[in-house]
Amino acid sequence: MKKLSLISLGILASLHVAHAQTISSKKWADLFSYNNVIAMKEDNGKIVAAAENGIFYYTIASGEITKLSKANGLHEVKISAFDYNPQNKIALVGYQNGSLDVISPDGITYVVDIPIATGYNGSKRINHISITGDLAVISVGYGVSIFDLRKKEFKDSAFFLSGGVYEASNEATIFGNKVFSVTNTGMKSHEMNTTFPVFTTWTTEMAGSFRHIDSEDILSFSSATTGYLYNNGVSVPLSQTFINVRDVVVNSNNIVVTDLNRVYTFNNNGNFNNTVSFGEECNTATTVGSSVYGGTVLSGIKNESNNSFRPDGPYFNYAYKMSLYGENQLLVSTGGRENRFNTALNNPKNPGFYYFNGMEWIYPSYFIGNTTRFNVLDVVSDPASPDDVFFTNYTTVTGRGVYKMKYNASSKDFTFTKNYNLGTDNLFARRAVGLAFDDANNLFVSIAFSSDGPDVGQLTAIGAYDRATDDFLIKNTTSLGAAQKPLFYEGLLWIPIPRLSALVAYDAKKTVNTSDDTAYILNQANGFDPNSGGNISVALDKSGDAWIGGDLGLRVLQNAVSEVKTPANATVEPIIIEQNGLGEELFRDSQILQIEVDAGDHKWVSVDGGGVYYLSSDGQQTIKHFTKENSPLPTNSITDIKVDKKTGKVYFVSYDGIVTYQGDVADVTSGFGNVLVYPNPVVYSNFKGKVTIKGLAEVTNIRIADAAGNVVHSAVARGGYYEWDLNNQRGKRVASGIYFVLMTNEDGSDKATAKIAVVN
Fold it and tell me: Distance between CA 385 and CA 380 in Å, rounded?
């Protein structure tokens, strides 16, 4: 294979060739947004479209829609460029980090030459891809590269370097034996010959700032406001003047120019044909027969009747926290805070929250076009009245506080009910953070920077929702400043403090009357790292231990409910694991974003920049470690984790989108559930991993015997499932044959059996 060669300019010694890897499996699924269509291509009545985090296929005649993402084949998220050749059925996906996926009938190949290149330090984002036959021209911040789709390798590259400054290729196309590239200084061209890499040999066909270009039988390109038909060295302006050209597409019989929310079509001679409006902004458009289809920013693919087509998903990919309730219902918040406290994130798209009703995703029309600044940190449904939804708006501008909305199932929309500003006109005070209900369905909100007047920003508070007065009663707790989302457990609200290394356990006495409430405080004197910037997450496990994630690691408070009520005697401790024969603190110096406990008491732990760890109940064993490099996770910073304990499904939430993983632990009790062994049979040529046995009791005694009754393996499984490595008691792989799994629960009151077929 030929590597992407930058050696001709003397700025790179070597690069990595294309390679393939598999990071997805049937256990994963995506909950990505497919609204923002970046590029489209038609193939025999089917439109292939690229969105931000995946590709989808829309068959016009049947309406069938299928999707492809990192959860089932792709290797990245944040798609920035795409093209597809209907003749050879090969597509090329370009990402913001410079990597590529080659999608062909024989599989998907991941290409990382550009991201790992060391000679060029500018933006490696793939700006544009244009396929002609078996070749693709790729536009990047340094210029253009030619990629061979069949061989899956780079050919020549041209670096637009002049006076020590690189000029980006905005877009490029192959027309005849030439590459034409549009840049901010002109449309440039060069034949694909031996001098192609030498920028000084390129010709400037037309000076100016140009954005888009495409070709088939003809070539067309555009500036921001003018389109051109290029013919034998002459550029002829198209008859229409545009506001802001988003894309130019050349099909076999027309030129399609996308201009904000209008699409113009011209024949191959540049004569104006028609204009179509899709009622919203479009990124691109194409024609199928005589019909025009728009690739919109917010509604997927639209036809001329304004019907939209895309896989179901949230309105945007931004996600921060999730509430899981009812029958597979989800509420997703989209906000955030810089450095975990204080400054609210400013998202120009003002996303608000998303709702999944168990069947489809719904986006409140209230947020569309709303000029209020929304930074929604949390959203929950009222257990006493599930159609009532509360969310927090954490801002320092008008519109902050807690909001109440009502869901209407018939209209599939939410209506605004009330905004509670929590009783102060000071825009920097009483910022609502997170919401929680107690076991009596009383609603509480954690409040950051509660005090007013000269001491603004000095107190953490709790707000209790009084249904009788339809208002919140506020009680300050201590001089700690910020707050995180509360967690209700055994009569207490557990609130990590992200500004200081502390934890609040708030006893509301099962009422909304705040006058008799008590706040118990743990701080550095109780064992939190004195150098930490604060605590971020907390989870309570089946043993009643509090797992507390902080800025610099993890601490555990055993028997948390009783211990926290005597703060002077309570001690939080790190988990010590053995590494190379030495004791090592688990997650030392790591920022713990979220901790979640599954039905088997295992711990899911999100580490900022480090992916997600799946730990044994005591934290001593890492069962799985998912990262964006080895799994469909869209990022290594997962902001929230939720486990559906009935099904074992795990939700991973991030600013780059949501993915799910079907875990092996569900609804674990003292007895057996539906015991399942997989894979079964185990054929060594097809599978070389461990065999999973799930549906077990919370504590299960396991004996595995061969057909003669000899016990080859025994173990005690905790947490509802077990993985057998197919080794016998001596550590050797067992022979081919049928093996019987004999299982009893901890007290012997329940039994189960299974068979495993092994083929070596």
Answer: 11
Class of domain 7-309: mainly beta
* Domain residue spans of the chain: 7-309, 322-421, 676-759
Pairing outcome for strands 691-694 and 401-408: unpaired
CA distance 406 to 414: 5
> Which of 475, 473, 370, 360 lies closest to 416, judged by CA?
370
pLDDT value at residue 134: 95
| Amino acid present at 635 | T
Residue pLDDT, tens place only, 344-365: 888 999 999 999 999 999 999 9
pLDDT tens, position by position, 635-646? 999 999 999 999
Token pair of 42 as six digits? 């038609």
Task: Measure Cα distances from 630 to 172, 274, 625, 642, 667 in Å.
Answer: 33, 48, 9, 20, 28
Rounded CA separation 171/709 (Å): 69
The CA-atom distances, in angstroms, between 140 and each of 94, 96, 178, 735 are: 10, 10, 18, 55
Question: What whole-number distance in Å separates Cα of residue 672 and Cα of residue 698?
Answer: 8
AA letter at 420 = Y
CATH architecture observed for domain 676-759: Sandwich (2.60)
Distance CA 105, CA 116 (A): 27
pTM of model > 0.90: yes
Closest C-alpha to 129, from 203, 74, 72, 79: 79
Residues pairing with 473 in the sheet: 464
Residue 391 CA, chain-centre distance (Å), reads: 21
- What is the pLDDT confidence band of residue 10, given thresholds at 50, 70 and 90? very low
Q: 119 Cβ partners below 8 Å, 6+ apart?
A: 6, 9, 11, 12, 13
